[in-house]
Amino acid sequence: MRVATYNVNSVRARVGRVVDWLVREDIDVAGLQEIKCKPEQFPFDAFREAGYEVELHGLSQWNGVAFVSRLPMEDVEITFPSQPGFAKGHDGPDQPKEARAIGVTVEGVRLWSLYVPNGRELDDPHYAYKLDWLAKLAAETEGWLAERPDQPLALMGDWNVAPLDTDVWDLSVFEGHTHVSAPERAAFTRFEEIGLTDVVRPRLPEGYTYWDYKQLRFPKNEGMRIDFILGSAAFADLVTAAAIHRDERKGDAPSDHVPVVVDLDLETELDDDRPMIF
DNA sequence: ATGACCATGTATCATGGA
User: Fold this and answer.
1) Which of A159, A231, A234 is nearest to A196 (CA)?
2) Is the CB of A70 under 7 A from strand B?
3) What residue spans define the domains of chain A?
4) H-helix or E-strand containing A144?
5) Minimum-distance nucleotide, CA of A214 to C1'
6) Within 10 A of A16 (CB to CB), how many other CB atoms are there?
7) How do the residues of chain A divide into helix, strand and coil, expressed in percent and rounded to 5?
8) Mean pLDDT by 10 residues, chain A (278 residues)
């Protein structure tokens, strides 16, 4: 089973090339972020004609997450239970929850498509929201892992955090701004502390997943690595290959992010004598 | 060529993105 995560930066603006990519790359299930539309605006037909069913959570022109899959999707869940809300100029507990998380189960594998809040600037309320959002998600994930330790689980999406200095082209450009701050990196590392691992980086140590549209960032390869697939131990055991589809940043009307893809082997029976590879 | 932001709606600017 081939699984992908892709921040498409508007599914309506890119439906043709996204569907072409799904078919050409033989993707079975993809978590999308920043679909930027409500359900009544989603281009269902283009995906269905290519053999993909759609589950989505979209509330407005901002954010929005989805799964497209040619395998059956079960147990669809929009937002995670403890997900914090946010609304500009509002404080307190009654803030609406944004469309930033959707979960589905495919072939027994639990998958979440996540669009982590950007944070904007270190002194912006959105930054505190981002840290809270990640902390609540980590606590939620601890519960899921405790409930179902043997179920393969992956959290994938646009994490809006560059965990390593080498995940941005020039750290000095980001100092004092979001994505590289110590609290954001600690919030990201928390997921590894509770037992998830980045299943892509061991196979692909190099490579960005995002390049700003501005200032020739892509031709100059001035990018960021902020899109990740974090898997439980049971998920990591299934992964046989990983890829970052850098070429999707080329051509007409690309997203500013590119897809991150993993192959899972759901056939092999694991046994206790299996040698450790990593 | 991979080339000097892009997408959306409130629309001829404001907002968000990272």
Assistant:
1) A231
2) no
3) 2-264
4) helix A125-147
5) B5
6) 12
7) 25, 25, 50
8) 98 97 98 97 97 97 97 98 86 84 98 97 95 98 97 98 97 95 98 98 98 96 98 98 98 97 87 57
Which listed residue (A28, A52, A57, A115) is catalytic?
A115
> What is the DSSP track for A102-135?
EEEEETTEEEEEEE-----STTSHHHHHHHHHHH
Q: Does the annotation flag A63 for ligand binding? A: no
A2-264 in CATH: which number? 3.60.10.10
A212 touches strand B (CB under 7 A): yes
Q: What confidence score (pLDDT) does residue A37 get? A: 96
- Nearest-CA neighbor of A58 among A75, A78, A29? A78
* Tokens (6 digits) for A114: 């996540």
Letter string b/e over residues A28-56, b meaning 16 or more CB atoms within 10 A of that residue's CB: bbbbbbbbbbeeeebbbebbeeeebebbb
Alpha-carbon distance of A152 to A158, in angstroms, equals 20
Question: Cβ(A38)–Cβ(A77) under 8 Å?
Answer: no
CB A264 within 8 A of CB A1: yes
pTM (two decimals): 0.95
Helix (H, G, I), strand (E, B) or coil at A216: coil
Judge whether A213 counts as a catalytic residue: no
pLDDT of residue A21: 98
Q: What is the pLDDT of residue A72?
A: 98
DSSP state of A251: S
Q: Residue A57, exposed/middle/buried by CB under 10 A (0-12, 13-18, 19+)?
A: buried
- Which H or E element spans position A142? helix A125-147
The pLDDT assigned to A268 comes to 77
CA distance A277 to A67: 31
